Amino acid sequence: MKIAELTKAKSLKGEIIPPPDKSISHRAVMFASIAYGKSIVKNFLRAEDPISTMNAFRIMGIEITEARTQKSEVRNEDSRLKTQNSELIIHGKGLYGLKEPFDVLDCGNSGTTVRLISGILSGNPFFSVLTGDDSLKQRPMARVINPLKEMGADISARSGDKYLPMAIKGKVLRAINYNMPVASAQVKSCLILAGLYADGTTIITEPQKSRDHTERMLMAMGAEIEVEGLTIKVKGQGSRSKGLQPIDITIPSDFSSAAFFIAGALIIPNSEILIRNVCINPTRTGLLDVIKNMGGDVRVENMRDVSGEHVADIYCKSAGSLKAVKISGDIMPSLIDEFPILCVLATQADGVTEIRGAGELRVKESDRIKAMTTELKKLGVELEEYPDGIAIKGKASLKGATVESYHDHRIAMSLAIAALVAEGTMTINNASCVDISFPGFFEELKRITG
Predict the structure, then answer these.
(1) Are 259 and 239 in the same domain?
(2) Where are the alpha helices (DSSP H) in 305-408?
(3) Full-prediction pTM beyond 0.90?
(4) What are the pLDDT digits (tens) for 272-285?
(5) Statement to judge: residues 171 and 313 lie in one domain
(6) Cβ of 406: how many Cβ atoms within 10 Å?
(7) Domain limits at 393?
(8) φ, ψ at 97 (rounded to 5°)
């Protein structure tokens, strides 16, 4: 789909199950591949980014078989949605069981793939080269290359070790004590994985808490990891005969994918939706705290534990009036992926919403601060751009326009929600980028739109 055209909606009504969590899907494939034995990964996200991870490990000799299943779920009285998911069987070969890839490993658009896998490859005794699409080749890699070099890794990359392609010659690593300058789950996870191959205990300290799926899953698989506040200690396991244990995991639905529907229900009149089986890991759900402060009607129900992650259903309905908020500081890492849709929420809140401390968004799939500034202005929104954020004047009357996705899935989906409260037709260019995390997004949105 090169373009998507949307018009104003009367309401959003029904039940949905968002796609499986992208972050957990990546990690399940990677960690199962370096464990010993057969792992079963249920509800794997069949989207472009996780498939890049799966293909990379297949090239390195890991046997991964896949069975696709269809499930029908009742959503409302007259509609049923068929959702497709995958079950993977992964035959892990241990920390040192990967084989040297015969070709360059193409990570596509996936920053998670390239950054996490670099930690694994740095400790494996062979040569590999990582690359990606044009967007990924512009994303900063020094943030993982520099600490990996401190651990003794042999890495070189384009433009003075800043960008892909990146070549790695694996070797024995040494443990380090590293203070991260920026909170990043990808950098932290890379160093945790490298720490498994290091001689000694690697200590990593973050400035703020970032998502902790890596720590949770690896500890469940037998890794010797201690978490004390913002500090993570990883004991090298290269000499242990047992290594990591295989897993049997069911991946919950992605909160970041659910966020678009939560926002839509809040700002579109007469809306009421129930979003099922959502991962509510506290390092991911800062948006819920922000919405509560804005006066939104969102309730978390039926909380339970699934494969070590907190899962719940989320009920939300249209709000009478949202109020502007100021957002910064420690909460930002827990809602970093929700910045684009939070900007859309801010356009419909009373007052001026200010979001600061989001400079990391300059180097995501796109410069998300610049992207949202540019596109919201086209819709008639008054705003001010900062180096690390944005201020948005709310209760804007949005008008339809032709907007750009910047080939960024979260920008495209956020603008789609904005279209549902705008007058006229919204045309989103390069809308197929939503397949990176949410195949079928536009069909699902159409299904529940009144």
Answers:
(1) no
(2) 339-347, 368-378
(3) yes
(4) 999 999 999 999 99
(5) no
(6) 22
(7) 3-19+252-448
(8) -95, -5
